[in-house]
Amino acid sequence: MDHSVHARHRPEHHAHHHNPAGASWRMAAQATLHCLTGCAIGEVLGMVIGTAAGLHNAVTVVISVALAFVFGYALTMRGVLRAGVPVRRALTVALAADTVSIAVMELIDNTVMVGVPGAMDADLSDALFWISLVLSLALAFVLTTPVNRWMIGRGKGHAVVHAYH
């Protein structure tokens, strides 16, 4: 097998990460935690910006979702770029690895934030705001982990990033 840098970073040389029968819960939880980190940074920042600026709830949600995707992709790209992958390819890897996971997380955590009475209208000094936000992110983690497990087991999602570690 060719062990050049180029060969080491091509996914087809890492078939051992693809497990058609499924992925471990631990691997899925790690992938989800990685995704949650970026999502949480963006989500919290967006909610804080929108709430502090007194923006309409819909605008706050849009800002939160956009920032969650930006930070989620950025964290994945950081690791892939460290492996010597060019920026355009790193972006492609991040999009393939994280899009579904981030989308599911954002759907869940924003549904919770909008669904908890008063959470979106609470001030930053109000415990309801922070408790709802933490609850929304925790629930997003729990419900996104099985999605990531299913995707990793099929060589998709976070499994794509493993080729660059």
- Overall geometry comes to globular
- Kindly estimate the percentage of residues that lie in beta strands according to DSSP: under 5%
Low-confidence stretches: 1-20
Determine the N-to-C terminus distance.
18 Å
Reading the helices and strands in chain order gives HHHHHH
Share of helix among residues?
Answer: over 70%
The average pLDDT value, as a whole number, equals 87
**Gyration radius from CA atoms, angstroms:** 17 Å
The main pleated sheet reads as: none
Secondary structure class reads mainly alpha
What does this structure look like?
The protein has 165 residues and is an all-alpha fold. The chain has six helices and no strands. It has helices at residues 5-8, 25-52, 57-82, 87-115, 127-153, 159-162. Mean pLDDT is 87; it is low at 1-20.
